User: Fold these one by one.
Assistant:
Number 1:
Amino acid sequence: MQLPPALCARLAAGPGAAEPLPVERDPAAGAAPFRFVARPVRFPREHEFFEDGDVQRHLYLQEVLMQVADAPEKPRVPAFACQVAGCCQVFDALDDYEHHYHTLHRNVCSFCKRAFPSGHLLDAHILEWHDSLFQILSERQDMYQCLVEGCTEKFKTSRDRKDHMVRMHLYPVDFRFDKPKKSRSPASVEVPGDSGEQSEGEAMEICSEPVAASPAPAGERRTYSHRIPSTICFGQGAARGFKSNKKKTKQC
Amino acid sequence: MWSPRQGRLRPTVCGVEELRRRRREQEAALRKARREQQLVSKRLLREDAPEEAGEGCVAAILGEAEVRGQGKVQQFLRQAQRGTEEKEREGALVSLRRGLQHPETQQTFIQSVLEGSMRTLVGLLTSNQALLQLEAARCLHELSHSEQSTIAEACLPATSYLLTYLSGHSSDFIELCLYTLGNLIVESEAVRRQLLPQGIVPALAACIQSPHVAVLEALGYALSQLLQAKEAPEKIIPPASASSSILASTLPQHMLQMLQPGPKLNPGVAVEFAWCLHYIICSQVSNPLLIGHGALSTLGLLLLDLAGAVQRTEDAGLELLACPVLRCLSNLLTEAAVETVGGQLQLRDERVVAALFILLQFFFQKQPSLLPEGLWLLNNLTANSPSFCTSLLSLDLIKPLLQLLPVSNVVSVMVLTVLCNVAEKGPAYCQRLWPGPLLPALLHTLAFSDTEVVGQSLELLHLLFLYQPEAVQVFLQQSGLQALERHQEEAQLQDRVYALQQTALQG
């Protein structure tokens, strides 16, 4: 297929539309038995016209499989320590350090040193745990914001919010990043099982009884199992590491 | 430049013949799957070679234990959860991950879900040890890649965390979560039914603002899998479906931004978002909305850019991007909204025609199966546009178009249709079609046996005779009548053959 040489020049030149030649149709053009009508055509999703292109698309996706992912080893560097005060973690690869930093030091509460996976969750935590104005206001209006990105609902108590997240958003009842605040008051309505800080070693205790993988259907459950220790605000943080007597990271 | 994962992937050491055979098999399997509307493909991010070291490990997992290595899977999990040394815990997860590259171990893992294997893994995924978290996510990723659909549902407890981590900052981790989500999404409607209320659309809309190219490509992949779902046109795309709706979010604008040509255009990212856009557009849910966001002009400019890239012979994988772009443009052009802006076509730049022909030539040489898609766009451009028809003539493109006739019957029909689009506009157009290569080409296609090709040739002849009567004489001199006679008995062609014979004899 040979293209006229001037075509490339046309592509390189500026935009413009051709001045159309005059259109002049004769009614005999569409007269029977001839039936041609100029019209744009549309194809819906599953039309077989798309078969070839779709197959190529999927070959491309699968290509990642076919190639042996022979990635070079992570570049190793001389061992270095995390520079954040009090953190003793040592690394020999920059990628590992990047992930460590973002996970444990990036969104850290300056009051209690807990780390959170995102700024959004950190902000909610600070507001709900460390802001006395919040406590006052929440007695009069709905202040507990739904934690799901994009949802603007607010609730009177953190329990109501959890209810909402479980029912409407199908979140797990033991969602790690929505621990209710420990209350010192014995008459607290907080959920039992928040037995205070435990050391890192037990942070991953699983329920001793098997729990079904899927969340309960909407509306059924009001009491939640909290056998999982409440400590799972992860990254108890550098400062706390010193207090635990089960520290596993390298000693400073 | 167009190789999306340079530096991470290298070709296998298999022989070329072996590769070709595998590819043919794959292609056949994909065609079959598509016809059954079950096209499912997943991407796997794998960072170490599953060769000898891995094999030995798997043998250890599968080997001795009575219940197909169930004991070993549990053992690794326990070690990861309760080991005292961090390196030991990480190592246990790495071993588990290597094992999970194999279907038997995946099966074993799923069978032990009732004993808490998934729960343990999710616990590790949310642990306060960053590297354990990462390894647990990799295990989950391996599971997500499994071809067993029960596995996707077994991973449901992890989805809320995967979504939460999308608003974090560790780009490698986010990328991993996105590919895992994409794999789970494509596998199971139950997973999608959970992810939508869990807020996957707002999470993706927030994540799309990441500056990391790898994250964007992963996001595009996950989104394309979501949009490809069969329930997407009713439940996921339309603006009316509230918070889980794609069109109601800021995603379309961001997608179009990723497709704007310029120094920031990344091919791997653009491919994913072009396919996303195609799935939205061909669902025909709310295309005027997209036109309002400037989809036509963005895609038009991208087409020009692609043609430029072809000329610079940067052709590795160009067709992967060209295909969805052509489809989007073609389908958008059928919308009435296209003509509302001042009653003119929004897309009027004749460079689009030039670009399209450069791409057609590229397809002709490298990927002929895409010629119909290119010609489809040409039809939609020319059908109602005297300006584009004039461009075809003034840019001297009729002859190259005719050179495509021998490729296949489908291509022939489309070429003839485009020529009819031009001819039906009247004498001014037909005068430019004759004399020239058109008549000989038509005499040639009349010799085809395919009814549709011949039928379209007859339509074109009719228009040519009507608007350019001098052509009749030449037709007769070149044994045109004999060419017509061949088809006198064919039911679908008879009437038109007869009418043309009459015209020729009277002319």
Number 2:
Amino acid sequence: MATPMLRWCCPGRRWIFAGIGGGSRHGRGVPTGSTSSGKRGQSSVAQQPLITAQKPRKGEREWAAVVGLEIHAQIASNSKLFSGSQVDFAAPPNSLVSFFDASLPGTLPVLNRRCVEAAVMTGLALDCHINRKSLFDRKHYFYADLPAGYQITQQRLPIAVNGSLAYSVCVGQRWSQMVTRTVGVKQIQLEQDSGKSLHDNLRSQTLIDLNRAGVGLLEVVLEPDMSCGEEAAAAIRELQLILQALGTSQANMAEGQLRVDANISVHHPGEPLGVRTEVKNLNSARFLAKAIDYEIQRQISELENGGKILNETRSFDYKLGCTVPMRDKEGKQDYRFMPEPNLPPLLLYDSGSLPTGADPQQVIDIDQLREQLPELPRVTREKLVRQYGMRPEHSFALLNEVGLLEFFQNVMKETRAEPKKVTSWVLNTFLGFLKQQNLAVSESPVTPSALAELLDLLDRKAISSSAAKQAQCVKTRKNSILIKGGLPPHLQPHLTVSGGHKVPGTQRTLTNKHPEG
Amino acid sequence: MQEIYWGVISGTSQVWLGLWALAGGRRGFTSKAGPRVEAGASRRVLKGVGQILEPLALADFGSGGAVARPEKAIAFAYRLCAVATDRVGPVRSVLEDGCLCLRSDNVVEGNCAEELLQNSRRDVEEYFVAPPGRISWPKLDEKEPLSHC
């Protein structure tokens, strides 16, 4: 699975209007060879057939975009937020549903301790203030996949507020320049997920599966501190890595464990903020930046053409590559928030305020959770840079692929080669080879030990770099690699590969272009 | 703005009161007798809000009785304004001094699809069939579950 790469982004970028269609009376477009934001704007909308680039007029005013994000992350827990039914994503329909999840009368919510811990840990990792007392509310709306007619959430007084998320973007054409940006975390709240609706167009009916109804969600609301799709994508990527490092969510967008809604508006710098639209259904890391950039351009062109932006909800159509209004969101929604009458306030403690003689199962100690926090990605990257003299962008790349960092560290344990050489080999040759074969690191036929040995040979100049590259590709049925052809016997090592991975017809002999010894 | 004791008023009345205050229906809270609610003004506000709330809350504001009930509730609630509540926080929940019990993260229920589906008038291969009317048909690929509001 290709992980999103950090792309080039201009700080505090300004947007230039790219003219829509030939009939535009303003006839403005992306300036050639000027600001980088202009170029970026052009490439991001290059696939949109309607937008054509034209020369700008003199005195053209710049636009600034404001992007805020709301992220819903499914909590990695065994059971649901308020009931004891299982959390699983591949079960027969409606088999993981309790009476409470189906909203049968006479059932009551009981809060899952693990979900509270997950929320506190995430709040601590994002430098939030943890509210010692937080409240639950009901958010009412009618939809077939919400059997109760309301969702239990924390609208008024959530569990964590006022944090920040640091992320990095590349500036400049080359990858070597990375800058750190910060986006404010407005709040983190616990809430229930809804069930799933599946539309059967053939029979004009909607099928409902409540397996997901009641699963715990962490809603993370980011302040509108971002100004383009790249920044948003980078922030989301960092949040994903943090949630995965904490173990609070698997945060896999493709599996619906991480869902993003964006609030987007544009305005002229120095003027008040514009009307914002909400773009939902941003469930793909690949299209996140594209969708946001499209909406920014759409708003700019609408305003430049004398139109108005409606405060509406839109959805991103992946096939057409554009945002479209969501049909069932006509008119303003009124959620009629009210306090959840079945749940008392959630009280959290720290080591100074722990009630004496309390049942430890019933009490959550924030300080204890803080001590148990695992290492965050930012710290891991800093350590790599310090320990190995690695370039920051390499530390990002190592953390960007599941299992790659562990692989690298295992190779480092066993090899005598220089860290820079190992880094370069792992990130370029090894990773390139995996991508080519469409393998995850966990599926690699080459073990860290094997690679370590290979790199030692390379280091001793016993084999050439091209021979080493080929050696990496060779597998035999007997789980050993034989480097043949040209190497003296005492330099023919037997390298072990991970077992069971049979690839038909792969026994090859190497041609050694630089025989030595 | 003063908080009103929500326990007295049903959920929908929250909206009424908010709009009422916006419509300038609010009187000072120093009067011992409490403010008088202008009948004509309240009916105008209720009519407008009712049109918005009907589809959202599936509530019927068409009949005379349907408007009269919240009118009475609002009038009653405003009598509470005679009570001095400076620096006294509202009771948001009768459970506010209660203890929120936490549950261990174990799977102890579920696996009763057959039982649950018996409650449904129609079902298709262990899925509930949604009643028609609220869901519009999107143009998007049907493999993607519809995301709701």
